Fold this protein.
Amino acid sequence: MSENKINIVLAGQGNSGKSAIFNFLTGLHQHIGNWAGKTIEKCEGTLFYKDYTIDVTDLPGIYSLTSFSEEEEISREFIIHQKPDCVINVVDSTNLERSLIFTLQLLEFQCPVILALNMFDLSKKKRITIDINKLRNLLGIPVIPTVASRGYGITRIIDKVIEMEGDKPEYRIQGYGKEIESSIDKLALKIRELETPYPDRWIAIKLLEKDPVIMDHIRSKDAGILEEARQLSENLEEIHGHDASLVIADERSHLASRIARETVKLSHRHKTTITDRLDSVATHRIYGYLLMLAILGGMFFSVFGFGNWLSGWLDSIFTNWHGYWKEQFGETIPAALGWAGIESVLALVQIALPYILPFYIILYFLENWGYMSRISFLMDHFMHKMGIHGKGCISFIIGFGCNVPGCLSCRIMESKRERFITAVLVTLVPCSAVSVIVFGLVGKYVGLWWAFGLYLLAALVILAIGKILSRLLIGEPVELIMPMPDYKTPGIKTILKQTWNALKEFVYIAAPVVIVSGVFIQAVNLAGWMPAISSFLKPVTVYWLGLPAVTGILLIFGILRKELILVMLAAYLGTTHFAEVLTPQQMITLAVVSMFYVPCVATISVLWKEYGWKKALLICILEIGFAILLAGLVKRVLDLFW
Amino acid sequence: MFVHILTNLEQMEEQVGQLSLTEMKEGQLGTIISLLGGRLAAKRLADMGITPGTEVRLIRKALFKGPVQIEVCGSGLVLGRGLASRIMVEPR
C-alpha cells in the first residue's frame, strides 16, 4: 500500500444518513432514503484530500453483523477481509441508544472506529443533549458530531482518519459481564495461536454465540477449541438461563443503554410532537387507510393524467421524426432496422419521461417524508397473507409505476425467499404501460368500471399467487421489524438526485435489452415471418381467446413494452376507434392477457440479473400459461352474461 | 424458565401481571420480562435493543392482526404481531 493511500468504510444502520456522508465525500451520488436498510449493494468512491487518496466504501445499512441476512454477512466479510484503515460508524444522534449496539459490535472487530454523530442538528431540535467527551471516554474512540445534509463535521472526520493513520490508537476493550469476559479471554488465548484472518476476541465471541460460519472456520483448524467453546457457552447458559448467543446480545444491549444513560439527556420526553400528531391520523385504524388510499390514488391519477398528456405530445413529435427518417434513408431494410433501434430508444423515453419521472418524484417525496414506513405498518397484516411482510408493499407501489424498479426494490426484503415472492408478485402488478391498455381500451370503450374491475382482478390474482407461492416455497416467514422514523421535511435536492439515479438505473438496465429485442423483432417482421407466426398462434388467439389472428403479432411486440399492443392494434386495424373492430368481450380478454402474460423485456432482464436465467425463464413461461388460461376463462364467463 | 412458560401456557396466564406486548393497552408502559420463540428472532430483537429488562411503551396496534408500534430506547419501532405476541411484558 502506498504511503498516502487510506481505505475507509462507512458503516451504520439504515436511515442514519450514511449515504449522504458518502455523497458528500465522493461526489458519487447514490440512494439515500428514509426507510431502513435501503442501501443494499456496496458503493465505492475515491476522495482526494490534502496529500491523501482515500478510498471510501459505503456498506449496506445494517442492524447487526451476525449472519442473519445476506447483506449483513457481506458487510461483515468486507470489514474483516478488507481490513480497512478505519471504519466510520455513522449513527443517528436522535437515536443513539439503538445505534450504540451496532457500535459495540464494530468494536469487537478490533479495527479503528470513528463515531460520527449524524443529524446533530435534529437532536438539538429535539432537545437531546449528548455529552460528547464522556461518550468518547466511555467508548474509547473519537466521536465527531456531523450534519451530513449540510456537510458539517465531515472534513473533521477525514482529518481524524489521517491523524489516526499516523498514530494507530490502542484498542480499548468494552467490558461485558464478568463470566462472559473470562470465557472470552480463555478462548481468545487459544485462538491467538491459530492462523485466521479474524481478530481473536471477535472469534471467541462468535464461538460463544455459536455462529455457524465461524464454527466451521475454526473446526477446520482446531476442533478442540470448539469443544471448549461449547462448554463455556453451556456454563453461561446455566448461569443466565437462556441461550448463550442471547446472553451476549443482551449484555451488549444493556451496555449500550448504560452508555446512553450516562451520556444522553432528554428534556420533555413525552411532549406530543408533530410526528405523534400526524401519526394519530396516518396510522389510524380507519383514517389511516383512507388517507393512504387518497394519497396513493391521487398519486396514480395525477401521474397517469400527466403521463398521457406528455406521452401524446411526444408521440406527435416522434411520428414526424419517422417521416424525416424515411425521407432521408428510404424504405430499405437497413433503414427500417435502424429505425426500429431508434424507435426502441424513443419508446423508452416515452415511458421514462411522462410516467416514471413524475412517479419517482412523488414516490421519493413520500419516502423522504417518512410516509412509506407508515404504509408498511398499515399493510403488514394484509401482506402476510401472501407470505411476505409489510415492506413488500413498497415494491408493489413502485411496480405500479414500472415493474423494473419495482423488482429492483425487492432488495429491501430480508430473506431470499421473501425477495423472490415479492419480485414475482410485482411482475403481476399492472404498471403504467398496462394501465395505458386497460384505460385506453377497456376504460374508454367498455366503461370505466370495467377498467377498475380489471384492477380488482389483478389484486385477486396477486393475492392468490402470493398465497400459492408462500405455500410452495419452504421457509419461515420473516416478521416485520422496522424502525418508525420521525417525519422529516424532504429536501428537493435529495428527491431530484434520487429520481435521477433511479431513472439512470432504469435506462441502464432496460435500454440494451429493449433496443436489441426491438431490432430483432423488426427483423423477423421484415423477413415476412409474422403472418406465419400469427397463424401458428391461431389455436390460442383465435380459438381459445376469441381474438383476431393479428393479436398474435401484437402480443409478441408487447413483450418489448406492453402499450405497443395498443399502438400496433391501431396500426394493424387501421383505426384508433377500437369499438368498430373489437367487441367488448374481445377488448376485456385482450386487456387481461396483456396484464398478466409476460413481464416486458426490461423486467425480464432485471429478474435475470437478480435471480438467474432459470428462474426468470420459469416465471415467463408460467405467466404466459397462466394469462392465456385466465383470459380464456374470462372470455367464457363474459360470453355467458353478455 | 423458557421451557416452563412454553409448556404451561395456562399457568403463565396466572402469573400475576404478565402480558404479551400485544395485550398491552395503547400508551401503556412496561418492562420486558422475556422473549419467547426462536433464537434468531430473539437475537434480531436484541440487536434492536429489545431485551429483558428494557422499558417499552406500546404506541399503537394496527387493525385486525396487524403489527404493533412501540417506543423503545427513545425511538419508534414496528414489530409484526406474531413476534410481538411472544414478547412478555410486566406492565406498570
